[in-house]
User: Which sequence fits this backbone?
């Protein structure tokens, strides 16, 4: 059903997505769910020197214009892998369109396109920040939104590239051994108590933010459970896990992207003019090549 021609038609005619029958939307959600269930919470990818590139995209937040421009880059430059760091919906004008296009790409080419879970891949967040109401208005179906909730819970949390570069939506959690604990988690048998502790740290991986002026972990203004983290614990995390770089999103910067902690942490954001043109920001993205990271502005 979702071959290249179908996906190209969706990308060329995104306005048609809001006219799709709910049965088609349901089929897209369920087929994507099958793909995500086949993946672990931590995905590991490998490249081959200079000839392979990985494109990493940050928050989209319903910005269809930015998404389509990013996909034009993919079409032109043909990177080996494409990683979306989450927060596809909420706040923007074309949330359903953005989500359906990315799910269709995942269905059609699951070993090339990867989607990670952000803090807005959450029913509660969707009800507070717009996607729930937009979806119900467009498709007039409350039941299908429960399928989206099930989809969210199956989306992976992070990607490690070439054993050296971590891609995640938010940041590092207080449990610095979390990567070992979630590696192959779907195949492990663990107690409910341990699972709850793991999920608390997974929550922090979607919500936490770097802060240059602090040491350790400090309570975040984002709400209960979320933290700011300083360079000291970041360095400890990176050394413990033998990592060189971390790419994340979750925060918008007027300059488009920002490096932290001796340029080992790169924060990108791929929705242009997120707060309106009065406080404009360019869309940014990252390229991974030869085990190095490069920040780019979407011209």
Assistant:
């Amino acid at each position: 059903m979702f071959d290249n021609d179908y996906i190209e038609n969706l990308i060329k005619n995104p306005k048609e997505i809001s006219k799709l029958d709910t049965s088609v939307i349901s089929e897209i959600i369920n087929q994507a769910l099958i793909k995500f269930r086949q993946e672990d919470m931590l995905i590991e990818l490998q490249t081959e020197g200079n000839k392979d590139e990985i494109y990493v995209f940050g928050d989209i937040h319903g910005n269809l214009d930015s998404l389509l421009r990013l996909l034009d880059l993919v079409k032109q430059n043909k990177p080996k892998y494409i990683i979306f760091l989450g927060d596809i919906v909420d706040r923007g004008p074309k949330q359903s369109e953005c989500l359906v296009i990315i799910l269709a790409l995942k269905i059609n080419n699951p070993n090339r396109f990867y989607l990670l879970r952000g803090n807005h891949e959450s029913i509660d967040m969707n009800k507070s920040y717009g996607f729930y109401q937009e979806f119900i208005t467009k498709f007039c179906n409350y039941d299908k939104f429960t399928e989206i909730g099930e989809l969210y819970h199956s989306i992976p949390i992070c990607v490690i590239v070439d054993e050296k570069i971590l891609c995640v939506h938010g940041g590092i959690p207080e449990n610095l051994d979390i990567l070992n604990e979630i590696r192959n988690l779907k195949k492990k048998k663990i107690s409910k108590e341990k699972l709850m502790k793991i999920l608390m740290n997974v929550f922090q991986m979607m919500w936490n933010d770097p802060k240059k002026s602090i040491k350790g972990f400090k309570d975040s203004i984002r709400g209960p459970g979320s933290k700011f983290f300083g360079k000291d614990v970041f360095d400890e995390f990176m050394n413990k896990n033998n990592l060189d770089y971390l790419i994340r999103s979750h925060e918008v910067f007027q300059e488009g992207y920002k490096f932290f902690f001796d340029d080992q942490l790169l924060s990108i954001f791929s929705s242009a003019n997120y707060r309106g043109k009065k406080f404009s920001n360019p869309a940014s993205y990252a390229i991974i090549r030869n085990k190095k990271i490069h920040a780019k502005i979407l011209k």
User: Anything to note?
Assistant: The mean pLDDT is 94. The chain has ten helices and 14 strands. Residues 4-297 form a domain with the Purple Acid Phosphatase; chain A, domain 2 fold (CATH 3.60.21.10). The first strand starts at residue 42 and ends at 45.
